[in-house]
């Protein structure tokens, strides 16, 4: 139960439920301990527990959120730091890519598997980066960025990554490239790490990775899995984790394919009332052995993003259909149940913590947006980036100031006078060259955004909607216009000269606006993933 509570703290805050938010934060601060002899998934523990603690800390400690807890004294931040230090031994590998699991008390188990997934190794940068910036200890940011380097350095000639890799030898043990299972959030965190931290190296990697995905994996409107070296199709399957992709495309400003793909994915939902884990695109039927719907958020997440981008009421209709499915098909006595078979709608007594952290959150945000947004995300004091678990990570000055990046060794920084470590420099240079883009010399003294120094060649500018050199305010001020042919003139802040940032569907505009008792619960026996342990120890997740 404590896992769901941690994972849903920022949802309570988003709802404006001060009382439950404060009671939960206080209870977790008093009772949660990580000195337990338990081996946990580095990825799941990071995105659910670390992310949950950090987002709640950032809300509870800040008057500007309207949810500050007077008695709060950094308890959740201290817990987050303690947890992250217990995860650090996992990163001690020759490739920098972390082991998939680590024991919270003893470090990596002697017989721990050396095989991990790309998503598992490459989806840690946001939470660890935020922690570095809050604690002023760069280690967390360094190890997770190093892990991304470790993965990306082993990409194929086609700029594709496989699904599983040996963290000691760096050999791919599963060479199927795709945007879903085992890889999905690797792509997501490349773009979001750039958006949140302003670190352009992530953007360059994302550009390359995204372009390759659209070239080799996109079979309009579906996505397939291919061999990472030859691009030969291996799995003509829609898998439910792929459904986050249109949402990511909205963030990247690539709306048109997002709309097409969402329509296709939603047609699967409409056919069954839920999306099965796998849907075979050759037979147009549910993939054998992949019949379940474990209350996943991905399609709902994309629906929210597309509504936000287009305000097309069809996305509200889609949201209504999804609510109906959940209410009529998944509602059960103590919450919501997994659907073990989307064809028979059989329920299974299980509710993952991401149901409250993400599924419910994105639905709520969708409808709140429709009635005139008055919530922390749409109308709060900061722009927020959603973690892959739906946690709210604010672009506060402490977290996002580009100037601060330069104090982190290993971060890509073009500031004169700052010596990057040579490895990071080489990679950054490679990426710049590979990207076909270059920076004018002599412009990069401050580490601050460089407004007119980015020169694009035809291969650059992949991400429609924003480009390197824009300030954070501008990035978060991305505005979407529904007319597909509209060009948008943007008056540049620094020199007053008009700059046309043109896209068929997206335009960037500048900064638009800038006690120990648990709450009563009759359902304490609700099944949750990996939930075991004493009441004062957090039940930690294994890989989903
Ligand atoms: C969540 O834990 C996260 O969204 C993760 O990135 C993928 N799996 C689940 C939701 O399906």
From TrEMBL:
<dbReference type="GO" id="GO:1904380">
    <property type="term" value="P:endoplasmic reticulum mannose trimming"/>
</dbReference>
<dbReference type="GO" id="GO:0016020">
    <property type="term" value="C:membrane"/>
</dbReference>
<dbReference type="GO" id="GO:0005509">
    <property type="term" value="F:calcium ion binding"/>
</dbReference>
<keyword id="KW-0378">Hydrolase</keyword>
<feature type="compositionally biased region" description="Polar residues">
    <location>
        <begin position="497"/>
        <end position="516"/>
    </location>
</feature>
<feature type="binding site">
    <location>
        <position position="388"/>
    </location>
    <ligand>
        <name>Ca(2+)</name>
    </ligand>
</feature>
<keyword id="KW-0106">Calcium</keyword>
<keyword id="KW-0256">Endoplasmic reticulum</keyword>
<feature type="active site" description="Proton donor">
    <location>
        <position position="44"/>
    </location>
</feature>
<dbReference type="GO" id="GO:0004571">
    <property type="term" value="F:mannosyl-oligosaccharide 1,2-alpha-mannosidase activity"/>
</dbReference>
<dbReference type="InterPro" id="IPR036026">
    <property type="entry name" value="Seven-hairpin_glycosidases"/>
</dbReference>
<dbReference type="InterPro" id="IPR001382">
    <property type="entry name" value="Glyco_hydro_47"/>
</dbReference>
<feature type="region of interest" description="Disordered">
    <location>
        <begin position="493"/>
        <end position="544"/>
    </location>
</feature>
<dbReference type="Pfam" id="PF01532">
    <property type="entry name" value="Glyco_hydro_47"/>
</dbReference>
<dbReference type="GO" id="GO:0005975">
    <property type="term" value="P:carbohydrate metabolic process"/>
</dbReference>
<comment type="similarity">
    <text>Belongs to the glycosyl hydrolase 47 family.</text>
</comment>
<protein>
    <recommendedName>
        <fullName>alpha-1,2-Mannosidase</fullName>
        <ecNumber>3.2.1.-</ecNumber>
    </recommendedName>
</protein>
<keyword id="KW-0479">Metal-binding</keyword>
<feature type="active site">
    <location>
        <position position="184"/>
    </location>
</feature>
<keyword id="KW-0325">Glycoprotein</keyword>
<dbReference type="GO" id="GO:0044322">
    <property type="term" value="C:endoplasmic reticulum quality control compartment"/>
</dbReference>
<feature type="active site" description="Proton donor">
    <location>
        <position position="277"/>
    </location>
</feature>
<dbReference type="InterPro" id="IPR044674">
    <property type="entry name" value="EDEM1/2/3"/>
</dbReference>
<dbReference type="InterPro" id="IPR012341">
    <property type="entry name" value="6hp_glycosidase-like_sf"/>
</dbReference>
<feature type="active site">
    <location>
        <position position="298"/>
    </location>
</feature>
<keyword id="KW-0326">Glycosidase</keyword>
